[in-house]
User: Which sequence fits this backbone?
């Protein structure tokens, strides 16, 4: 691998950091939006349930690779100039919110109905029921699939390379353009992604197992 | 700033967009078919008796599921050609998608296979069925019927993910969209149109999978209840 020098490795490492950064942005943004999606479709009035399910169907039926350029090229033509990082952050957040929202809706639905009824019998208000009775139980159920979905987020940030944001996959492409050793470079890139994702996968599985043991 | 939407410019490219949509469907269907076969094979390998095969299947599944499809596509397309194996963009895209979706299918089918009660296998053995007959008649049909909804979602996701192949100049719908928007400068309209096309295709795919289920699973056809 004599063609790869320290500068190349530094460049890949910077890309790796941006992949992590973009993943965190997408998780924070998508998590916040997804929480609203889950609440809106679980406890909201009829119109909000309809609206949210339409939103989820719309986003889940569209590829991320169409959402990304739609935000990146679309917002400027509406008069809002944004950087690739902001565009990628927005598109990924929207994309993540639809999936996380659905996952969390399922978790909220799997809290036994009797818990909500018992809380109502104790004359708790709506926000007390959600905050003190339903959410704490739902969060426990939601942790393993959420960690599992973080793997998807990390992998999907690679698509931000399509709008010119230099994260790990784009860094690999750029180095390849100057060294012409695609097999080795993309193998290294794949190994770096694996190093990010595999621990999350293992953690998700372990959490799931301990959750099943606790509920046996 | 006021923006006037003009869908006529990208719509003028409708033959190209239609051809792109067709390529997307061809890519998705061929990789669904071969990915399903690969996935079932790996699921059987990972639940089977051979420890060596099971380990191999696990490594394959973990590596594929923990790396992005984009990088897999690059490795197949650029990597193989640099090793002397020249493949076209469409072939490379199909291979990458098959390898990718095979791993996900395998995980789903494995869950189905493991959900078959042990008593069923013992009953099959008592009836004197061979290992192959047990698989063919006792294990696989109910296993696949049980996980069919999950498989449907996975293959719809695959169709959406095939947009990634636009990055290696496979002329599918997203690649055509990228070209149309750079020709017309009507990016919002183009991508809105294409997003609508993907949405429509995912609905059509779900309908097709429902029909397939109705044909393939007589029990579901008669009772209409999930297994």
Assistant:
């Amino acid at each position: 691998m004599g063609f790869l020098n320290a500068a190349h490795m530094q460049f890949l490492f910077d890309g790796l950091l941006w992949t992590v950064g973009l993943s965190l942005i997408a998780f924070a943004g998508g998590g916040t939006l997804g929480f609203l999606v889950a609440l809106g479709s679980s406890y909201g009035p009829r119109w909000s349930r309809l609206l949210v399910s339409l939103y989820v169907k719309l986003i889940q039926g569209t590829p991320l690779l169409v959402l990304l350029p739609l935000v990146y090229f679309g917002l400027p033509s509406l008069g809002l100039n944004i950087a690739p990082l902001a565009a990628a952050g927005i598109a990924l957040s929207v994309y993540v919110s639809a999936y996380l929202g659905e996952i969390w809706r399922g978790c909220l639905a799997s809290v036994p109905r009797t818990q909500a009824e018992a809380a109502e019998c104790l004359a708790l208000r709506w926000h007390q029921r959600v905050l003190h009775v339903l959410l704490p139980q739902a969060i426990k159920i939601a942790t393993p699939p959420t960690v599992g979905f973080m793997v998807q987020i990390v992998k999907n940030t690679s698509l931000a390379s399509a709008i010119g944001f230099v994260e790990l996959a784009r860094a690999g492409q750029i180095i390849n353009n100057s060294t012409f050793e695609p097999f080795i470079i993309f193998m290294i890139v794949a190994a770096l992604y694996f190093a990010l994702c595999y621990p999350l996968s293992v953690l998700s599985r372990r959490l799931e197992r301990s959750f099943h043991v606790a509920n046996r | 700033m006021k923006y006037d939407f003009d869908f006529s410019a990208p719509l003028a490219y409708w033959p190209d967009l239609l051809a792109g949509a067709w390529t997307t469907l061809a890519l998705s269907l061929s990789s669904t078919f071969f990915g399903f076969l690969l996935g079932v094979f790996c699921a059987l390998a990972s639940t089977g008796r051979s420890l060596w095969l099971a380990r191999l299947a696990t490594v394959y599944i973990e590596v594929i599921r923990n790396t992005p499809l984009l990088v897999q596509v690059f490795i197949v397309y650029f990597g193989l050609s640099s090793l002397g194996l020249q493949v076209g963009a469409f072939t490379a895209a199909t291979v990458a998608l098959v390898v990718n979706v095979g791993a996900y299918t395998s995980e789903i089918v494995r869950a189905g296979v493991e959900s078959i009660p042990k008593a069923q296998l013992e009953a099959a053995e008592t009836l004197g069925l061979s290992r192959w007959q047990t698989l063919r008649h006792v294990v696989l049909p109910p296993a696949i019927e049980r996980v069919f909804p999950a498989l449907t979602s996975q293959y719809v996701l695959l169709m959406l993910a095939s947009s990634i192949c636009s990055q290696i100049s496979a002329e599918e719908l997203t690649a055509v969209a990228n070209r149309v928007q750079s020709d017309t400068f009507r990016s919002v309209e183009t991508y809105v149109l294409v997003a609508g096309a993907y949405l429509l295709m995912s609905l059509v795919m779900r309908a097709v999978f429902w029909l397939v289920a109705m044909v393939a699973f007589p029990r579901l056809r008669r009772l209409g209840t999930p297994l």
